[in-house]
Design brief:
five-stranded mixed β-sheet, 2 domains, Nucleotidyltransferase, domain 5, elongated, alpha/beta
């Protein structure tokens, strides 16, 4: 009778009821999801973006599309994070023949820890306009940073300190590691190669101008820029070490 009064078909009325019920269910699900998004973001000290919040929800058994998290973040009072555009040059290369070939050859998987590593350098802009530099070493098995260094200079000691931290791990064994990087002069320096030789590490270098040869490092720095560097203003080298160290080791 109601359908006749409203001059709608019975099928159209039930379809409207179904859509309305789904909308109400979605709204209730959003209300329940918002506190979890806020808490995960707070526990990451404001560094998690859409993708990592989505992954964290998944680990809690809450399966949700990242687009939904992207839509809800403003409702949770959280700014959507965008990638910085400007990046100064960090690879100080030369025209000489590379000291090593591309042994890794884009085989970014490893069967065990401390089998294949990769490294790279990025920058951090300080509040006064100066730059400091971050060098990292990642284990391709876990995709975790196992060595890092923050310094004001792009000299070879930047990558040497990061490499030493990786080599000094209890599980790192001499003669079993392949270390891959770009052709930056820091990685081709005599001091860096001497360190690798001391530990029996095989060196691998990307082809000139080919960022895909070191894609894992590039991906790590992209996440770092989006989730941390785009959100903070660092006032000193010490602060840079502190904030980067926390993000690398705990987030």
């Amino acid at each position: 009778m109601l359908c006749g009064v409203l001059q709608v078909s019975r099928s159209g009325y039930y379809r409207w009821r179904s859509v309305r019920a789904q909308e109400e269910a979605n709204q209730e699900a959003d209300r329940q999801l918002l506190p979890r998004i806020r808490l995960i973001h707070a526990e990451s000290r404001g560094s998690y973006g859409v993708r990592r919040i989505t992954a964290a929800l998944g680990r809690e058994g809450i399966v949700v599309n990242y687009k939904r998290v992207f839509r809800l973040m403003p409702q949770a009072g959280l700014a959507r994070i965008s990638r910085r555009r400007r990046r100064p040059r960090t690879m100080l290369s030369s025209d000489r023949t590379p000291v090593a070939t591309n042994v890794l050859a884009r085989e970014f998987r490893a069967d065990r820890p401390n089998q294949r590593w990769c490294g790279d350098i990025t920058y951090i802009r300080l509040a006064d306009g100066r730059f400091v530099y971050l060098a990292v070493v990642l284990d391709l098995y876990s995709r975790r940073v196992i060595g890092w260094s923050v310094q004001e200079s792009l000299e070879s000691n930047l990558v040497i300190e990061a490499q030493r931290r990786a080599l000094w791990q209890p599980r790192a064994k001499k003669g079993e590691v392949l270390m891959h990087s770009d052709q930056g002069s820091q990685y081709q320096s005599r001091e860096f190669r001497r360190l690798l030789a001391k530990w029996g590490v095989t060196q691998s270098l990307s082809r000139r101008g080919n960022c895909w040869d070191n894609a894992v490092s590039e991906s790590f720095f992209a996440s770092l820029e989006v989730e941390l560097l785009a959100r903070i203003m660092v006032h000193s080298v010490e602060k840079a070490r502190s904030q980067l160290g926390y993000w690398i080791e705990h987030v």
